[in-house]
Every structure is written in structure tokens, then in C-alpha cells.
Amino acid sequence: MCRPTVGAYDPRCGCCPLLDSVASRLVEYGPDDPTLATGRESLPTAYLVSLDVRTGIVVDVSPQDGDGAGSSFANEIHAVDEPLRPPAAPARAGR
Asked: Given strand 47-51, what is the order of strands in its sheet?
């Protein structure tokens, strides 16, 4: 369980933090952010965060309260330590 608290959570980018919260909005917009005046209860205060053991990459973030409860953000790791193979370009008609 992760709790992004004011003074402890320091997101790399406040406009698109991994854990949207009062703490992240204060960092990005300051205390005059209009969403803080009207909707602090709607922002999550706790998240379940899962990391891939091998890579340390976040694979799931699920808010536990606020308006985001019941939703989640997930990544699927397809391979580790393999060369990246971009998808083939589609064939063009008439060639």
C-alpha cells in the first residue's frame, strides 16, 4: 500500500504523476489549485502498487479510494533482455 502524503511524495512530474493525489497537485499547481478547493475527497489517498520483481517496472497501480477506486493502470512486460523487434511496416498497395 502506498500513501502519497504531502511532504513525502515527490513526483518526477506533477502534471502526470504515477499517484495522483493532494501531494502531487500541490507540487505542480500549488495551494491555489482549484481542484484542491472543491474536491480533495475525490483524490485517492492510497494505492496498491505492484512492481515486476526482475525489472522493477511498475506493472499495476490501483487507487483504493476517491473517484478512482475500482480502476487501475497496468503494464504488460513482453520480454526482458531481448533485442527490441519493432513491428513490420504494412505493405503498400500497388507495389
From this structure: 47-51, 58-63, 73-74
Q: How far from chain centre, in Å, is Cα 16?
A: 7
Spatial contact of 5 and 23, defined as CB atoms under 8 Å apart? yes
Local confidence band at 39 (pLDDT 50, 70, 90 cut-offs): low
- Whole-angstrom distance between the N-terminal and C-terminal Cα of the chain? 55
DSSP 3-24: ---TTT---S-SSS-SS-SHHH
Cα angle, residue 62 at apex, residues 48 and 66 outer, rounded to 5°: 105
Contacts of 18 (CB under 8 A, 6+ apart): 11, 49, 58, 61
**HSE (side-chain half, CA atoms, 13 Å) at 50:** 10
Q: How confident is the model at residue 36 (pLDDT cuts 50, 70, 90)?
A: confident
pLDDT confidence of residue 77? 87
